[in-house]
Amino acid sequence: MKLRIGLVGLPNVGKSTLFNALIKKAKAEVANYPFCTIEPNIGRVAIPDNRLSEIAKKEGSKEIVPATIEFV
Fold first, then answer.
1. What is the rounded CA–CA span in Å between residue 39 and residue 28?
2. Domain segments of the chain: what residues?
């Protein structure tokens, strides 16, 4: 099951700035005029979980795959 979060709001209120802050990259274009970003931007962020390394150690797993959130 994928977790997808959409950022919606009025034009020129900071959705692209928030998107860039959440994914920690300057992926979405940001400008001081309405309708600067027309196409949807998609970014994935891994959710850190310290418990995964403990579980992997106990079960003998070599690979750890954290959960992710997809922002649209």
1. 10
2. 3-71
